[in-house]
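During the second half of the funding period, the structural biology subgroup turned its attention to how the target accommodates small molecules. The most pressing case was phosphoenolpyruvate, which had performed well in the primary screen but for which no bound structure existed. We therefore specified the complex as follows and requested a full 3D prediction, including the ligand pose.
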Amino acid sequence: MRKKIVAGNWKMNMDYEEGLSLFSEVINMVHDEVTGKQHVVVCSPFIHLHSLAHLAKGYNKVSIGAQNAHQAESGAYTGEISAKMIHSTGAEYVILGHSERRQYFGETNELLAKKIDTALKNSLKPIFCIGETLKERETEKHFEVIKTQLEEGSFHLDAEQFGKLVIAYEPVWAIGTGITATSAQAQEIHMFIRKEIVKKYGQEVAENTTILYGGSCNAKNACDLFGQPDIDGGLIGGASLKSRDFLDIVKEFN
Ligand code: PEP
């Protein structure tokens, strides 16, 4: 059975104290209210990772993740953070290929393939984001774009390595816009992604791959989205910054 995950992406929000206080609320609520098998991942800025991982000890439903990692193991890359450093904080996951990284920092599929390799080598589980822009959807290129991102970013892995990935489908036009893909639109792409994984790695790997939806997900639309057969949870931006909003989404799996 593949894992059901709701992951929060705080992006560049929350100073140190704010982050700790938000996270404390989240773990308390998870502990008190979450009865299902879903797993919660909180992807914070780097400055919080170690403290959050410490607070999360003993809560087996909650893990910590970073939002980026450098592709090199170590070296003269002033200001950068390596996968090994992230792992040493106690974090288990790392978001790679978020559309904001692709758009503002020029991250390409080729670079992301290297980042995925380095993350896996350092025992981090990548949450690999893929998704089309509005223009690509309007010109009906979305399937082709998703396929290329998947192939170029992750299909160089062997089956065992690929099995450690979480895929997040995030249509760029839905991120932070308040416009959510309909559950039918999201399911169509998730099913397509799973079929591509079947073609490359076989049925078993595909059935075990967690595929998250991200893009203006909230407590109102989560139920419908999470009810789709190929949607295994969500990557949540804006709504992960308020503990109640985030927990209401997590609880949609109960
Ligand atoms: C995201 O940034 O990954 C995201 C899904 O953001 P939002 O939920 O705010 O659309």
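Two results from this model are relevant to the next phase. The chain has one domain: 5-253. Residues 9, 170, 175-176, 214-217, 235-239 surround phosphoenolpyruvate (CB under 6 Å).
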